[in-house]
Design a protein that fits this description.
Keywords: Carbohydrate metabolism, Cytoplasm, Hydrolase, Magnesium, Metal-binding
Helix content: 25-40%
Low-confidence stretches: 336-347
Protein name: Fructose-1,6-bisphosphatase class 1
Binding site for Mg(2+) 1: 89, 108, 110
Enzyme class: hydrolase
Number of strands: 15
Bound molecules: 1,6-di-O-phosphono-beta-D-fructofuranose, magnesium ion
Order of helices and strands: HHEEHEEEEHEEEEEHEHEHEEHH
Shape: globular
Binding site for Mg(2+) 2: 108, 111, 275
Radius of gyration: 20 Å
Strand order of the largest sheet: 4-3-5-6-7-8-9-10
Strand content: 15-25%
Structural class: alpha+beta
Length: 347
C-alpha cells in the first residue's frame, strides 16, 4: 500500500503540539480540494464554470463561476480548521474567522482562471502563516509578514491528476489523490529541481514591453547553440502558475513574469502573498531559487495582501544568471551583436 498523506502529516508534524493545527488544516484543505475537483469534473450547475459573474475581485479581474465556488469551499475549510484569518485573492481584505487560532492562510482559491473554460490544468495555492497576539489586535498586519515566516505552503493542481505539492519546511513532497485509496498518497518523497535549466517559461507576447535586460536574456536563450549560451533551450508556458511551477519542480527550467511598462504591470502580474511566496518556499525546499530579479522572494517585506511582485523562479543557476543580467547593465551595454563569448553569459 502506498504511503498516505495522513501518515506523512503525523510523522512530520504531530510529534510537536504546535504541528497539530497545521496538520489538521492541511487535511481540511484536502477535503475542499476534492470538492472543487468534483465540481470541475461535473461542470458545475451552470455548465460553464468559466462563465463570468459580472463582479470583480480585489485585483479588478472579472470573477468566474469557479473562482467564487472555490473561494467558498476554501473559506469553509479555513473556518473548520480554526484559522484566525483568511486572506484570499477573491476577498477585499483579511477576513477574521476566529478569536483563538494562531494561524492565518493566504490563498489563491483558483489559479489559472483564464484556463477554466479550456480544460487546461488549474489549481489552488496556499500559504500558512503564524499570527501573534499583536497581529490579532491589528489584523491589517497579519498579511504583511515576509514569506520566510511561512509554516507550510503548497498547491493543488486540478489536471489530469489531482496533486498536492506540499512543504512544511522539510523538503517538497508530491501527493496524488487516489479515488481507489480514498485519499492522497505519496508520489514523490522529496522533490529536487534539476540545477541546469533546459526550458524557460514566460508569456512571450509581453516581449516588447520588457526592459532591455530581460529581452537580452531571452534573446540569448532563443539564439540557442549559435548564441552565447552555446546550447538549445525549449519553451513551455501554460499560463496557470500551478502547472508551470509543477513542471519546473519535476524537470527543471526557469519561469519569468517580470514587471513591464504597461499600466498595472510595473510589478508583473503575480501576487506576493498567495502566489509567489508559497511557490518560492516549495521551490527553495526543492533546491531551486526564487527572486524578483534582485531580491530573494521570501525576504520581501510585504505592504499589502494583494501586492504584486516580479517573479523569477526555478533552477538555481538560471535564477542567479537572470539576476546577473539585471545587475550587470554595463556589461550588457557592451554586448556584441555577434554574441561575444564572455563567461557571464555562456554555459
Ligand atoms: O495570462 P498571463 O498574463 O500570461 O498571466 C498568467 C498568470 O496569471 C495567472 O493566471 C494569475 O492567477 P489567477 O488566475 O489566480 O488570477 C497565473 O496562474 C499565471 O501564471
Ligand atoms: Mg493565480
Ligand atoms: Mg486566482
Amino acid at each position: 500500500m502506498p504511503s498516505s498523506l495522513d501518515a506523512y502529516l503525523t510523522s512530520a508534524l504531530e510529534g510537536a503540539a504546535s504541528g497539530r493545527p497545521i496538520a489538521d488544516a492541511i487535511r481540511h484543505l484536502c477535503t475542499a480540494a476534492v470538492k472543487v475537483r468534483n465540481t470541475i469534473i461535473e461542470g458545475g450547475t451552470s455548465g460553464d464554470l468559466g462563465g463570468q459573474r459580472g463582479e470583480t475581485n480585489s485585483d479588478g479581474d472579472i470573477q468566474k463561476e469557479l473562482d467564487v465556488l472555490a473561494d467558498k469551499a476554501f473559506l469553509k475549510a479555513a473556518k473548520d480548521s480554526g484559522f484566525a484569518f483568511f486572506g484570499s485573492e477573491e476577498q477585499e481584505g483579511p477576513v477574521r474567522l476566529s478569536e483563538d487560532g494562531d494561524l492565518a492562510i493566504a490563498i489563491d482559491p483558483l489559479d489559472g482562471s483564464s484556463n477554466i473554460s479550456t480544460n487546461v490544468s488549474i489549481g489552488t495555492i496556499f500559504s500558512i502563516l503564524p499570527v501573534s497576539a499583536e497581529q490579532k489586535a491589528n489584523p491589517d498586519t497579519v498579511f504583511r509578514q515576509k514569506g520566510a515566516n511561512q509554516l507550510a505552503a503548497g498547491f493543488f493542481t486540478y489536471g489530469p491528476q489531482l496533486h498536492l505539492v506540499l512543504t512544511v519546511g522539510d523538503g517538497t513532497h508530491v501527493f496524488l489523490f487516489s479515488p481507489k485509496f480514498g485519499g492522497f498518497v505519496e508520489q514523490t518523497a522529496s522533490v529536487s529541481i534539476e540545477p541546469r535549466a533546459k526550458e524557460f517559461s514566460a508569456n512571450m507576447s509581453n516581449y516588447r514591453h520588457w526592459d532591455t535586460h530581460i529581452r537580452n536574456y531571452i534573446d540569448d536563450l532563443l539564439a540557442g547553440a549559435e548564441g552565447p549560451r552555446e546550447r538549445e533551450f525549449g519553451m513551455r508556458y501554460v499560463g496557470s502558475l500551478v502547472a508551470d511551477a509543477y513542471r519546473i519542480l519535476t524537470r527543471g527550467g526557469v519561469f519569468l513574469y517580470p514587471g513591464d511598462e504597461r499600466k498595472g504591470y510595473q510589478k508583473g502580474r503575480l501576487r506576493l502573498m498567495y502566489e509567489a511566496n508559497p511557490v518560492a518556499m516549495l521551490v527553495e525546499q526543492a533546491g531551486g531559487a526564487a527572486s524578483d530579479g534582485t531580491r530573494r522572494i521570501l525576504d520581501i517585506e510585504p505592504e499589502s495582501l494583494h501586492e504584486r511582485v516580479p517573479f523569477v523562479f526555478g533552477s538555481k543557476r538560471e535564477v542567479e544568471r537572470i539576476a546577473r543580467y539585471i545587475a550587470d547593465s554595463d556589461a550588457l551595454a557592451e554586448r556584441s551583436p555577434l554574441f561575444g563569448k564572455r563567461s557571464l553569459f555562456s554555459s
